[in-house]
Amino acid sequence: MQKSKFLNIVLATAVLVLTVLLSTKNDKSVMKSSKNAAGSVENRPSDSTFIPFKKRSLGVRAELHPKPAAVIGTYDKDGKPNIMTAAWIGISNSDPLSIAVSMRPATYSYANVTESGAFTVNIPSAELAKYVDYAGRFSGRDVDKFKETGLTPLRSEFVNAPYIKEFPLVIECELTEYHDLGSHRQFIGKIIDVKADEAILDAEGRVDVSLLNPLIYAGRNYYETGAFVAEVGESLHEIDGKPFIPDYRRKHMNETLKVIHSRKSVRHFTDQAVSKEQIELLLQAGMAAPTAVNRQPWAFYVVTRRETLDSLSEQLPYAKMLSQAQAAIVVCGDMEKAGNLKDKAYWVQDCSAATQNILLAAESIGLGAVWTAVFPYDDRSKVVIETLKLPGHHIPLNVIPIGYPTSEDTPKDKWKPENVFWQ
Prior knowledge:
Elements: H1 2-42, E1 67-68, E2 70-75, E3 81-86, E4 89-94, E5 97-103, H2 108-116, E6 118-123, H3 129-137, H4 145-149, E7 153-155, E8 162-164, E9 169-180, E10 185-196, H5 209-212, E11 216-218, E12 221-223, H6 255-262, H7 276-286, E13 298-303, H8 306-315, E14 327-334, H9 335-338, H10 346-364, E15 368-369, E16 372-373, H11 378-388, E17 394-403
Antiparallel strand pairs: 1-11, 2-3, 2-6, 4-5, 5-10, 6-9, 7-8, 9-10, 11-12, 13-14, 14-17, 15-17, 16-17
């Protein structure tokens, strides 16, 4: 009996211990699961983020967005050129026109600017992001940044500082004063000269931001500048005193989707000139379209002559907006390139894909465009062929008027679930 009783006690104890261990394990698993779930929730926007105007306090943080991602050029005391990435920078005065840039005393450029009394501000395009990142992660005390990056230092024309040959926009600054603010010293530089690559200038000699596509910094990430929204003052007539309600349905984090859903048929244009570089961007996008057997059976005619645009406007029934447009692209099928696929009309599909690419590209760089049909109408085709004196093997598919939109035309929401059939 004693032995049997002892075994029962041992068995009961073992069961109890096992139960406790399993319970503890499950509790830890639940806690871990809960922690992960909470963490995943914290790492993505809460539902309240999407309630208009409901704000959450974030404390003291540098949340002024975006910040320009500029690269500062300086010479050290031995005349060695150096570059440093700066995001705390901006125009600080209009007369004399000046730039303020803040640097920590620990940076190599801090001493360079203090001693040389000059610096350059080099504005990068988005494709130069890797160089901007490198210049901000290493010190000129440790590495020769020009040598390591392969960038080219050029001596400024007016100030004692180098600038970067490969950067499209350069501002030469002469140090006029500085202020010790705490963690940073703010250097004030009077702008002595601005140099810009001709490729980023519009017809009037101004910097075209869509061509420059400057790099910006926000939230520990680099971004492109984004699409054209409106000219200063042109939207004032839309202020009507009514409450503003944000439309989150039209916000797309993906830039491609944003452009697709923002595209609209633009029929009202301003008189602002469109540059050759902008037209070439559109044509490059058109030629990136898919084509059957890679035949690329297209030809593009660019029309910029005012009298030609006006003539087409008068003769084509649905292209009257050409009288306002600054340019037009006529998309044609090239029957010699189509070869044995000519009779299958694949050229129509290929040129249509190219046309859609052109329309999306125009939207993405702040231009407006609209598809006006020519093919398969014989009367319209005859007008375009005779006006442009097209060769016999080029068949016009459409005419695309191009220019800067007046903001009168808006995108349409064409989503209709009833047109979708799931199988």
